[in-house]
Amino acid sequence: MTDAALPSSIDELQALLARERYVADRGLATSIYLALRLHRPLLLEGEAGVGKTEVAKVLASAFGTELIRLQCYEGLDVTHAVYEWNYARQLLEIRMREAGGPVDRAAVAADLFGPDFLIKRPLLRALEAPGDRPPVLLIDELDRADEEFEGYLLELLSDYQVTIPELGTIRATTPPIVIITSNRTRELHDALKRRCLYWWIDYPDFEKEYRIITDKVPEAPARLAEQVTRFVQELRTAELYKVSGISETLDWIAALVALDRHELDRETIDETLGLVLKTREDLEAIRGERAQALFERSLAPTGT
């Protein structure tokens, strides 16, 4: 994708994201804009459910390009992230050639470790993507992967290339748009951070969360959307094992619309609180009188 095809300003980028129903404040939009213009990876950190992964999805949709996602987990290695040799096909090829008579072992070995026998995983697919519209490469929840894998990414993030011993170095003709997310369950290394632009996505304030709700669930009654937003904002002030993110808010409002609710009340909150709180401890601590107190406090004009 040429620079001319990218948004020409931060305002234009914000408008583009808004058309995709993603509400980005000025700081986040600036970080995305610079990552696009400078062809640098963007590292987004924040609590779960605040919209980090959604940034990559929205960019892929806005630019009409492929989203290639690598979901990180403990034990993730090169064979699942970059490439793997198709051993079954290699073995079959060896047997077929041997059945045809004497073979040149050196030639066979060279053929077997060629592109035809290579299984491309997400990182390699992103580097070799054809066309003038680079894909969006989402490396999701990198903090869940082992430190060794994080170290392996350094070559890709600095030079948009990977090295395969049997084939050599494979470099992207057009660098992909790289979005890395982390829930910060562990600290990422400085070497990786130096290769990226960075932004921390925090929980939204009332105005931003209300706008997200009305954009994402436009069929929600205005009164219900306001009450849900104020209650969730108040709920985040409580001592919780797992604070609710935007994704939980959206799940809740969608469920309330499906239940044909137009306003919140005590019974509705108790019956549906499991859509907002995702641990037994939090549910037991909040449900009932404490939920009612939080609800009443959220209705106060000052929010206190």
How would you describe what is shown here?
This protein is an alpha/beta fold and 304 residues long. It folds into three domains: 3-74 and 122-200, P-loop containing nucleotide triphosphate hydrolases (Rossmann fold, 3-Layer(aba) Sandwich), CATH 3.40.50; 83-116, no CATH class; 206-299. Helices cover 48% and strands 12% of the residues. It is built from 15 helices and nine strands. The strands form three sheets. A five-stranded parallel sheet has the order 2-5-8-1-9. Strand 6 and strand 7 form a beta hairpin. Helix 10 (206-216) packs across helix 11 and helix 11 (222-235) crosses helix 15 (289-299). The radius of gyration is 24 Å and the shape is elongated.
Give me some keywords for this one.
single chain; 304 residues; alpha/beta; Rossmann fold; 3 domains; five-stranded parallel sheet
